[in-house]
Amino acid sequence: MTSGVGGLLIRRQKRATLEIMADLNLLPHIARQYRASLAMLGQAIDLCPESLWLSSHYTNRFWHIAYHAVFYTHFYLHTDEASFRPWVKHKPDSNFLGRRPWAPEEPPKIHSPYTKAEVLEYQELCRAEVEAKVPELNLSAPSGFHWLPFNKAELQFYNIRHLQHHTGQLADRLRTVANVGVGWVRPD
Description:
mainly alpha
């Protein structure tokens, strides 16, 4: 913790920065980036051949990565862990691509795969959540997730980055295996 005159100046500078950010109204821009990222994931899902969707040639199957990406996008759009309600078709542990943090010695039990239609349905629910929740965000509030020690603004960047990371994995797999490209989606 910084104290004295230097600390006071730093606190004033941080407050001024937050006020400038508030004036910029980043919320519409954040929503646009979510929509574009979700649209790119939707393209990857649509373009995926059924044989690749279910292929066991990879540690994480295509359907599993797609579901994981949508699940955590949905999860981090919420105020905090307590306010999150999983999708009605959620199957326990299907959101984990690896071992669960609280039980690393036990592999998650992955149930039957989701269909493309199911993951696209969930993706649409997530898109609706973006429209409902992003305009109401207080970007200077804490993330709401104790393991993510930053504010809601950074949480949005973190969440979109995670979504794009997995969309990129799937796009690369599509290009490599099926010679199919996922097009760049410009924000609306």
